[in-house]
Write a structure and sequence with these properties.
This protein is α/β, with parallel strands linked by helices and 569 residues long. It is built from 18 helices and 19 strands. The strands form six sheets. A seven-stranded mixed β-sheet has the order 5-1-6-8-9-11-10. Strands 12-15-16 form a three-stranded parallel β-sheet, covered by helices on one side. A three-stranded parallel β-sheet has the order 17-18-19. Strand 10 and strand 11 form a beta hairpin. It binds iron/sulfur cluster (SF4). The site of iron/sulfur cluster has 12 residues, from loops.
Amino acid sequence: MVLAADRTLMSPYRGISLASFFGCAPALDFNRDHNSFWYYVLRNQVTPRVLFDFICNPIDHTNGVANYAPYGLRKVEAALLRDGYKQEDVVVSHPDHIEKFIGPETEVVGTYEMDPLGMGPVTMTFTYGRKQMSYDEFYNRELHMRINAAKARTGSKAKVIAGASGTWQYNYDPAKIEEYGLYGVVEGELGGIGPEIDGVGGRFFDAIIAGECDTANPFRKSQFKVEIKEFVRNDRTFHGRFIHYGYEPSVSEIPTIVNPSMHGMVEVMRGCGRGCKFCDVTLRPLRYYPVEKVQKEIEVNMKYGGLKNAWVHSDDIFVYGLNPRTTKNMQPNREALEELFKGIMATGIEHTNPTHGTLAGAIADERLIPNISKIIRASPDNHIGIQCGFETGSIRLIGKYADRKLAPYKPEEWHWVVKTAIKTLNENYWVPAFTLIMGLDNDETQEDSWETIRLLHELETEQPDSMFTTTPLTFVPIGLLEKSDFFDIGNTMDPGKLGVMYKTWQHNFKYGIKKFMGRVGRNNPIKDFFFTQLAATLGGVPLSAMEKFARRKGFEHEHAIEKIKAIYW
Ligand code: SF4
């Protein structure tokens, strides 16, 4: 059993927080004019590969075995070992050494894929809706080419299975199933989201090896429903074997990792009860890890990986320990959260931060953030990064698509919630990284966009020292909106949406990079200085590109940029 992930998912990114998003950067532009200056300098490369490979440095390995691996892959590994597979039968391979492990005895190669075809929201934004090839796609493709070459060279009949949260993308480009030689694509039953296969890891791999998934089984009683999908694209027909699994394991059925995860990641919960329509996490039931289970995983990372931090995976950390059905107004369970973070710090780690949390949850209990900050020793030398959904400044859109994200507050209070939460978080040394959705359900009007721009500008003028970053993402149809269309950034970018994109990058450049980036780093000062200078040098490039784009589009787009420069700068 060989488990693997591509380079973009197997890099420590030189310890720079948020650099893991760099995999979404554009790698190649196949449409570049061969007479252009850039073609002469870089050929088809967009982000120079030498720069990308420097920042996305490969993970350490021991004789080809990855010393750290994505958390989800570690869960599958742990499930196989729990379910009876021997350690010597399972390997988590380094992507550059996968050939070492593929041969006639290899039964299954399982690849962990979060954004295999570059269709995730961040990537779609950076590649103008996949008009360029992202590094995510570039390196995932390279991994599959290496697997295929190794199989051909050794005569291996190993079945290659693509799993994890990005496999829905193969539905939109089925030619890749054939090109990559995939035996199967694992999907959940709900909206195509990646299933929680770690509950039954051993049983699943047994079924693959035994050939139980070779043919479609609509009428057979089986845990794993096999569907042979047919796709017609440009007069060609493609087939793909999609294996569906829909059971969500209870916490006791979720295995505990046995080897170190990337970035010291550990999970504390699955699911989220807030019900945002554009999100697939919310389709899952909410479950929490008890503190002892979290501690065990941190101890694995410390003991076998020498890690001193715990990156706490949470969909909304502030719903940890509450029951969304019975808790009035989603009031956070402060006692449960305090106990969780005390338990995490009791392991002896030096730093922890949750991955995600809602702004409303952060301020719904005024003692919550100050108390947690004390427990996790947040300070001017120990800032806590957290990703929060800003989504939109439009009261109309937030009320229509994410009203419970605001609970216990009301949509009309959204601007107040954003401003108050940033103040509270910053005062306690937390730095939120915001994501916004452009073209939400293709329902965003220009007035909605300008409301977002105005809110960002109000934040800058009312709280000029506040620390936050903003990343616009294009709408991708998942969750309850999976039947909607993708937002087509290349063709439906009206002046308002261009304005949102321009304003967010301008904020990051003027405030994030130039003002506070150098102050919040926890790495060594030389490294922090180097990357701040690099960001300051490159940070203006997207702004110039957008100005150029506006000039090409015409007066209204140019006017939107000029208006931001004149009024909202
Ligand atoms: S709060 Fe976040 S994780 Fe929860 S449903 Fe909304 S977007 Fe999804």
